[in-house]
Amino acid sequence: MVSKLFILSGLLFVFSCQQPDKQESVADLPIEEGEVVIDTQMVEYLFPPGKDILTGGDGAISIPIDHTKSFWIWGDFFLGEINDNQRAESSPFIMGNVWQLLDGESVKTITGGSIKKPESLLKTESVDGYPAVLWPMHGFVKNNIVHVFMSTIVQTGTGAWDFYWHSTVYYRLNLPDLSIIDKQELLTREQTNAHFGFGVTEHDGFYYIYGSNPQEDFTAGLHVARARLVNDKLQNWEYFDNNNWATNAKESKPLEGIDIPVSEQFSVFKHEDKFILLTQDRFRPDIYTFIADTPVGPWTNKNNIYKIPEGEDTTLFTYNAMAHPQYGPEDKLLVSYCVNAKHIPDLYTDVSIYRPRFFWISINIR
């Protein structure tokens, strides 16, 4: 695979604002099959200089609002101010979810709480006596309502891995203030083997919602549910068992054709008349795409589109690649992945670590 480095100043602003006089030059950017164009501008848009704003985080989940604006939702995150690529030890670190509204080059950070005491925007109660947070999944915007899925994560200790997935919660929020209309606990870990809430895709009157199901043998298949939007709310849920649709989520089965462990976060989206799955291998620094003719597969055309260079750094780990198809012309795709440090103090001495990386690829349906 050939990798190219471009400093794409203003490129994403051109995409999101759909400026006809500049779109032609962007579309002519040479990205041939197998090539990767590294993007540096999106990080500058999402993490600009300033005080009391987002300075680092993971997740990097984008939900388009219209052709100029998108929400970006982050999991655990830092707020505050940056000096010489370092953050103060007093910088607020918050577990949960923070939102951004990105409109061209302008970004607004949206949290709960106050400037002096920021909190996760959406919060939850404790579970079985343990503190819990809501980690973001995916969603969509329709009729001035934000439909978004959240993972309830229960913290059982103080260690980095002392937590477990408890449930998927479906929220409906008002635009533009993100006030809560209602919420619904869709499925708990006793009711499903899959963490439904990613890759939300509309097709033929249904919304398809995907989830992975990590197993003790280090496999993680891709599952899919679907629902209809009735009176502006997802209802009549069904789960695919590789032959039929069932109303019991326990009957869901892994979709055919995927031979790698699907990441906790991933993307499924429509391109032309095909469906594309983009996922990082859950345990390796490799990003893949698969293609299907239907939203339930079977999935074919496995393609290792990128080997993450930070995967060679023993002080870092990478995870949760995502696609952001709303930002590119039809033949190009913006992709992100998360990076974190194995040694927590490194997040304070080098701010750039705990920020996603972005790159562009060509979309070649074959």
What does this protein structure show overall?
This protein has 366 residues and is mainly beta. The chain has a single domain (2-362), classed as 5 Propeller (Tachylectin-2, Chain A), CATH 2.115.10.20. 7% of the residues lie in helices and 50% in strands. It contains 4 helices and 29 strands. The strands form 8 sheets. It has a 5-stranded mixed sheet. Strand 7 (82-83) and strand 8 form a beta hairpin. The longest helix has 8 residues, at 20-27.
Provide a compact summary of the structure.
The chain is built from four helices and 29 strands. It has helices at residues 11-17, 20-27, 41-46, 346-349, and strands at 2-5, 35-39, 53-57, 61-64, 69-74, 77-80, 82-83, 86-87, 93-94, 98-103, 106-110, 112-113, 118-119, 132-142, 145-155, 163-174, 180-188, 195-203, 206-214, 220-230, 233-240, 245-246, 267-271, 274-280, 286-292, 300-307, 316-323, 332-341, 357-362.
Sheet having the most strands:
5 strands, mixed
Classified by CATH, the class is Mainly Beta
The gyration radius over C-alpha positions equals: 20 Å
Write down the overall geometry: globular
The number of helices is: 4
Strand order within the widest beta sheet = 1-2-29-28-27
Based on the structure given, which CATH architecture is correct?
Answer: 5 Propeller
Write down the domain tally. 1
Please state the average pLDDT score.
Answer: 90
**Strand-residue fraction?**
over 45%
Q: Helix/strand-derived class?
A: mainly beta
In whole angstroms, how far apart are the ends?
18 Å
The CATH superfamily turns out to be Glycosyl hydrolase domain, family 43
Q: Indicate the low-confidence ranges by residue numbers.
A: 1-28
